[in-house]
Amino acid sequence: MAGRSLTPKSPGLSVSARKIKDNAADWHNLIMKWETLNENGFTSATKIMNIKIATRFKDKLEIECDNVASNDRSMPPDYNVELEEHCTELLRIFENMTKIHQKMEKLCSTTKGICDLEKYHHGDHRTPLFHTWPTSYFYEASVKLLEMYSEELKLKQTVVQEIAHTADQDLLMVYLSSWLYQPYIEQSSRVILESMLLETGHRSL
């Protein structure tokens, strides 16, 4: 899938067709932004995991040193400035993903509105706006994409909430792997998106 943004140009199309075409481009652009954030989040999560693992072994070796310095109560004994910075960055990335998800919800809502309007004016026998897809297919495709990203966002929320508080190395690896591979975003999402772009003319037949 190309990484560039799509800027639709749709002369001669009906209002509904132009809006559907714009929405398809928006889906593409939002998913590209999500993927960039996912990569950035993986980088931050990896750093968090490495710090957690390094700190765990360091603590085992420096118990006596910690006891000697126990009179210094200015910070908690497990406080780590670098860890906090990466956790803050991961939270910021998650918040940006939440904003993208909200825009996806809006796309789904506007697509449903277009479908309802088309059905009101033309019934179930509307000529396809582009090539072969009935208008309802665009809404169905949007719903499927939104469902995947909704579930994935919930998983990422769990990772953000738990990764800094987890001491178990195996569990840290599970969190890291789940962030990177996004199990709720199925391979079919690419097919759905590319089909939508092809139908609306953003991809050449």
Describe the secondary structure blueprint for this structure.
Blueprint lengths: L14 H47 L1 H6 L12 H42 L12 H28 L6 H13 L6 H12 L6
Could you please describe the fold and organization of this structure?
This protein is mostly helical and about 200 residues long. About 70% of the residues lie in helices and about 0% in strands. The protein contains six helices and no strands. Helix 1 runs antiparallel to helix 3, helix 3 (about 80-120) packs antiparallel against helix 4 and helix 4 packs antiparallel against helix 6 (about 190-200). The longest helix is centred in the N-terminal third of the chain and has 47 residues, at about 15-60. The chain is elongated. The chain starts with 14 loop residues before the first helix and ends in a 6-residue tail after the last helix. Mean pLDDT is about 85; it is low at about 60-75.
Features:
205 residues, mainly alpha, 6 helices, elongated
Number of helices: 6
Low-confidence stretches: 59-77
Radius of gyration: 23 Å
Structural class call reads mainly alpha
Q: How many beta strands in the DSSP annotation?
A: 0
What's the SSE pattern?
Answer: HHHHHH
Helix proportion range = over 70%
